[in-house]
Amino acid sequence: MDRNPVTTTLVAALIVVLAVASAAVIGVATLERPRIDGVDNSWGTVAENRTEIETQIAVDNPRLLEWGDGVADVTYTVSLNSVQIADGRKKQVDLSGGRDVITASTWMNNDDVPEWWVTHVNNDETTTVRVNPAVVVESTDVTFPVDSRTRTRTVETDLLAPLQTNETRRFGAFGRTLLVVNGTDARWGHATAERTPLIVSATVTNPTPVPIPIADIGYTIRMNGVRVGHSVGDQEEVIPPHSTRTIETRAIIDNSKLDEWWVTHLRNDETTRLTVDFHATVEYRGERQRLPLDFLTYQRTFDTNIFQQNAVSVNGSVDTDGTPAQEPTPRTRTASR
């Protein structure tokens, strides 16, 4: 039976249309998904009550945007240990095609600093910095979620190292050596929302023929000049003649002062000079003097470098393999006493 030429033509046209449509669907489905090619964070404006966090997210997918212009919705969070310090979003960001660097900023409340500090001290002076960006790209009415790329790094400090020593020293007053210091030690107590205890000790020997009373031990703690702890106690220790004893005392950091310190820390390129000064009333043969306890007093300079700026630069450059550079774990600087 002869076929109708019109019918044959319609069937052939329908097959062509279906083939083209199928190819288009397959083409869209097989397009490489957009990907986050790098993330960079830095500190922006540092105010008394809040701190700006600037974020750059590089999004790469040149094949996708050949189909037309695209826009992106960006969200991201920044956390220090368990404390989320920033939660930002930016909607309908125009994309030019190829590799785009999306810039956004948000603010952290400086009141979050004490909460982070507590986690840092109680976690053996270790902080995990976690940046979690999420991007959704829309192009030609098709929405493409970008693969998430959480960025983490570790920041460590070692603030008590200068006191953790067996170095022998001499403590003199009244024109003679009163004590031979055989070693000192320090450790953190359990930090709470309000206080961070610092427990220090010294093993001392009294070489004199008379007892040496040490009373009214006090301290002052400063961080970049901000006084974060100060007190004078009624503690008294007596070192018998020709004997060795361990003196232990504690100092307290007032965590409510840490937001004020934070501002100085960031403005000083994330560097802090910690000073801990101890003093006491010392008696020898009935004569009393208020003296600095040099064997417990120390200074420590440390930095944090929370955001390592080598994942993506302003012009969007990355390592040659297309992944962010490996980030070294920062260490504290050499302490001075």
Task: Describe the structure concisely for a colleague.
This protein has 337 residues and is mostly beta strands. The protein has three domains: 1-30; 33-156, Immunoglobulins (Immunoglobulin-like); 161-303, Immunoglobulins (Immunoglobulin-like, Sandwich), CATH 2.60.40.
Question: Notable features of this structure?
Answer:
337 residues, mainly beta, Immunoglobulin-like, 4 helices, 51% strand
Shape: rod-shaped
Structural class: mainly beta
CATH superfamily of the largest domain: Immunoglobulins
What is the terminal separation in angstroms? 106 Å
**Fold-level CATH name of the largest domain:** Immunoglobulin-like
Largest sheet: 6 strands, antiparallel
Question: What's the total helix number?
Answer: 4
**Overall pLDDT:** 81
CATH architecture of the largest domain: Sandwich
What amount of the residues lies in strands? over 45%
Number of strands: 18
Instruction: Output the CATH class name of the largest domain.
Output: Mainly Beta
Series of secondary-structure elements, N-terminal to C-terminal: HEEHEEEHEEEEEEEEEEHEEE
Overall domain count: 3
Helix content: 10-25%
Low-confidence stretches: 16-30, 310-337
CA-based gyration radius: 32 Å
